[in-house]
Amino acid sequence: MEIRHAMSAWLPNTTFPAGSQPLRCGVSGGADSLALMALAVAAGCEVTAVHVDHRQRPGSANEAHLVETYARSIGAAFESHRVDVESGSNLEARMRTARYGVLGPHAATGHTADDQAETMLINLVRGSGLVGLGAMEPGPRRPILGLRRSDTEAVCAALDWEPLVDASNADPAFVRNRMRHEVLPLLNEVAGRDVVPLLVRSTAHAREVAGVIAAQAAVLDPTDAKQLAAAPRPVAAIAVQRWIQTETGTDHPVDAASVQRVFDVVHGNVIAAEVTGGWRVARSQQRLSISASVPRESGSVS
Q1: Residue 193: CB partners within 8 Å, gap ≥ 6?
Q2: Strand, helix or coil for residue 298
Q3: Which residues pair with 289 in a beta bridge?
Q4: What's the pTM value of the predicted model, to 2 decimals?
Q5: 268: left (phi over 0), alpha (psi -120 to 50) or beta
Q6: DSSP string spanning 167-207?
Q7: Is 164 exposed, middle or buried (0-12, 13-18, 19+ CB in 10 A)?
Q8: Whole-angstrom Cα distance, residue 8 to residue 13?
């Protein structure tokens, strides 16, 4: 089967890089990531499927073999990595950090429109503000955001692939799983329709508005307390969010409570304040600085 022809129904709704470019794809073996890999090959990319084993469940090593088999069958290269992430608080976030440490900053992931809707709701309840409501930015790093989970399952069916089912995706200990299995079905029931397309359109609108404000924020020096104090609050807030993201190396939105604490520092209400993720913002002679206030945790890779 010629893979581009087999994938023709879904390719128009993807955003893979043009031309025969190298592309690392995070592939766990689930339907979304397998579809990402197949569609990337169909789009003409030189694909390397990267499987990251967090060693959090029995039999996880066998999953790498399945991913490798499917990757080789469509001409994709394959890499397997194991990472150690200790159990404890913020496990989901620490696993994600370890995974992206292996994949690298330009790797593609199999996030779908359903993930986009979930992310928007998660950011909403975390108080991440306008930037958070924009959720994930479409593009080469998330090339299948225009597809639904039903599409990725259909891609696998077209290739006679049997995706792995990760039991942890039903674990209510993770916020995303509760959004997926409890909140979104309830919203669908209340609205009398599938709300995912509505939420996805709202994320696009939020990104557009945030982009306009961000253009104004780009001219501010976020370490200059006087500039921040004089700027319109929405502009200064995005400048602060982007500054914290850059300095801490995270692409996750900074919550509004952390931004407010920074403004308390800006206006001289306090000398320093803790912000998201164990970081501390301090002020000295009208200049702001940021530093880690707790030891950073990371996964070891083998």
Answers
A1: none
A2: coil
A3: 282
A4: 0.82
A5: left
A6: GGGG-TTSHHHHIIIIIHHHHHHHHTS--HHHHHHHHHHHH
A7: middle
A8: 10
The DSSP string of 101-161 is HHH-TT-B----HHHHHHHHHHHHHTT-HHHHHT-SPPBTTBTTTTS-HHHHHHHHHHTT-
The span from the CA of 248 to the CA of 262, in Å, is 15
For CA atoms 163, 168, 171, 176, give the dihedral sign: negative
Per-residue pLDDT of the chain (302 residues; tens, 9 = 90+): 589 999 999 999 999 998 889 999 999 999 999 999 999 999 999 999 999 886 666 666 678 899 999 999 999 999 998 876 666 666 666 777 777 788 888 999 999 999 999 999 999 999 888 889 999 999 999 999 999 999 999 999 999 999 998 877 888 888 999 999 999 999 999 999 999 999 999 999 999 999 999 999 999 999 999 999 999 999 999 999 999 999 998 877 888 899 999 999 999 999 999 998 789 999 999 999 999 875 544 444 44
Token output for 48: 């390397």
3-state SS assignment for residue 221: coil
Q: Which residues contact 250 (CB under 8 A, 6 or more apart)?
A: 277
Check: CB of residue 292 under 8 Å from CB of residue 279. Answer: yes
- Name the nearest CA neighbour of 222 among 294, 275, 273, 281: 281
User: Which ranges in the chain are annotated with CATH 3.40.50.620?
Assistant: 3-111+142-166
Q: Which two tokens stand for residue 240?
A: 């602060």
Please identify which residue in the block is written with the tokens 């990531």.
33
- Topology given in CATH for the domain delimited by 3-111+142-166: Rossmann fold (3.40.50)
